[in-house]
Write a structure and sequence with these properties.
24% strand; 41% helix; Trna Endonuclease, Chain: A, domain 1; 4 helices
Length: 135
């Protein structure tokens, strides 16, 4: 069952160690995505987890995982925030990108739908979730 969160609980939910040189736009985008995910989970009585390990044998984690049952169907959606601002990151160099591809392929092989967003298109998350959960 999904629980209601206070603002303080949500802030604690989002809290993780700060990295140097993080972009403020990225932090705001990921926080806004978190609110969309919480709202969706509450409305549809789905489970939401942050930093979800979808493969117990690997250390891979997804930014958000939404799962449960909706309209008689199993829902398994992973949401990744790629960032992709103006600085080089682990998401944009060839080694990091290749590792992410392996991670996403493994998630899909395990039956997860993987949605990926950047700071430029994160506002589409709500519409994408609506589309997926209607079908």
């Amino acid at each position: 069952m999904t629980q209601r969160l206070t603002i303080e609980e949500y802030k604690a939910f989002l809290k993780k160690p700060k990295r140097p040189n993080t972009l403020s736009r990225g932090n705001k985008a990921k926080a806004n995505m978190g609110w969309v995910m919480i709202d969706t989970a509450r409305r549809l009585d789905l489970t939401l987890e942050k930093e979800y390990r979808f493969n117990p044998a690997r250390r891979w984690r997804s930014d958000f995982a939404l799962f449960g049952e909706h309209n008689g169907k199993e829902v398994k959606i992973l949401v990744e925030y790629e960032g992709l601002g103006f600085h080089k990151t682990g998401h944009t160099d060839s080694e990091g990108y290749t590792k992410n591809c392996a991670k996403y392929n493994d998630a899909q092989a395990r039956g997860w739908i993987v949605l990926r967003f950047t700071y430029q298109n994160y506002e589409d998350l709500s519409a994408e979730l609506r589309k997926l959960l209607k079908s």
